[in-house]
Amino acid sequence: MKVPLFIAKFSRYEYWPWWIFYLPVLPYWLYLSLKTKSLTYFTAANPGIELGGFYGESKSKILDLIDKRYLPKSVSVDSSASVESILDQMNAIGLLYPVIAKPDVGERGNQVTLIHTEQDLIRYNRTSKSKYIIQEFIDYTIELGVLYSRMPDEQKGKVTSITLKEFLSVTGDGTSTVLELMQKKLRARFQIDRLSKEFPDKMNVVLKEGEHILLEPIGNHCRGTLFIDNNYLINDTLNEVFDKICVPIHGFYYGRFDLKVKSIEDLYKGNNIRIMELNGASSEPGHIYDPSLTLFKAYKDLLSHWKRLAEISNANMKLGFTPVSFSLIIKTYWKFVVLRNGQS
User: Fold this and answer.
1) How far apart are CA 280 and CA 55, in angstroms?
2) How far apart are CA 228 and CA 257, in angstroms?
3) Residue 1's pLDDT is what?
4) I need a surface site. Which of 10, 172, 196, 251 has the fewest CB within 10 A?
5) What CATH number corresponds to the domain at position 107?
6) Taking phi first (over 0 means left), then psi (-120 to 50 degrees means alpha), and beta for anything else, what does residue 48 get?
7) What is the pLDDT of residues 197-240, one digit of tens each?
């Protein structure tokens, strides 16, 4: 018997709306606010990033802070740009299809799209209402979320969360269609409506036994990606790799890297790492969404990261960095959420 989706959404906290998940721990934020004497202390965590990377920060500006050896090829596109000018930018750096297009100011994976052809690009450009990034699609099979932090007066930091992303896929049994295979898999069932609209012809295909098909190449939780706790990979070698990446990033002390790497061996060597995004103060330790974790363990790990964030922010405040006002956060939210949704 299938569990109705509306019940399944509340049977595991990983499916909860983010604001419901955070409600029980808001008192801890108030406690940290009292300790730091600021409701917006977290915006002082990363002085080199707008609002500390809490919300509304430009992804392209953050990527510009990172050593180019770790970045995929990318171009920034204004919403008013013509397709011809975009193609000129892409050709200038040898950026070939497929590519990833995503808003320069992200919102939990919304409007992130895999672009295969010029026609796909034309459609995306036509519907985009704000600045966006076109980024090289890295076909490495390992995608990780790595949360790193460092005290402002130290040259060595630490990785405190590492999450493996398992992309949404199905495996054929020789008789079932893709749609039928998705209906048998709870995580895939949440994506049926969306994928049926995006790929209607794919839904009725019968896969051979053992045939594996990737349904979603973009590693976002809202797109059906499974987050798997890989904290066992954390060691001194990994910390040193991220010290090398992070220490040169001006004004950065706390955040999560979304990256791809060819192999775990390469990760420990600092080779073949491609950073797609760096998120700041609002970064979550992605491993807490592993289905095997208890809710108690998830909250415990989340609060330990909030404590670390407050310690870093407080240290920066003592160095003279002032948190932004609460009213500025509200204005930023209004600008990038309310107004944008009203235009859509």
Assistant:
1) 9
2) 15
3) 53
4) 10
5) 3.30.1490.20
6) alpha
7) 988 999 999 999 999 999 988 888 788 899 999 999 999 999 99
**CA 11, chain centre distance (Å):** 24
Residues of the chain scoring pLDDT < 50: 343-344
Tell whether 118 and 249 lie within a shared domain. no
Distance between CA atoms of residues 326 and 55, nearest Å:
12
Do 54 and 126 fall within a single domain?
Answer: no
Distances (CA, A) of 1 to 45, 73, 172, 291: 48, 47, 21, 21
- What is the pLDDT, as a whole number, of residue 7? 59
pLDDT recorded at residue 147: 98
| Tokens standing for residue 127 | 């519907």
Whether the Cβ atoms of residue 53 and residue 46 lie closer than 8 Å to each other? yes
The span from the CA of 32 to the CA of 244, in Å, is 30
Do 195 and 148 lie in one domain? The reply is no
Pick from 343, 153, 145: nearest CA to 228: 145
User: Would you say residue 179 lies in a domain?
Assistant: yes
Q: Assess whether 62 and 151 both reside in one domain.
A: yes
Distance, first Cα to last Cα, the chain: 38
Domain assignment of residue 31, given as a range: 10-70+140-166+226-343
Q: What pLDDT is recorded for position 334? A: 84
Greatest CA separation for the chain: 66
- Residue 276 has which token pair? 């797609």
For residue 278, is it within any domain? yes
Give the pair of three-digit tokens for residue 304. Answer: 């330990």
DSSP 125: H
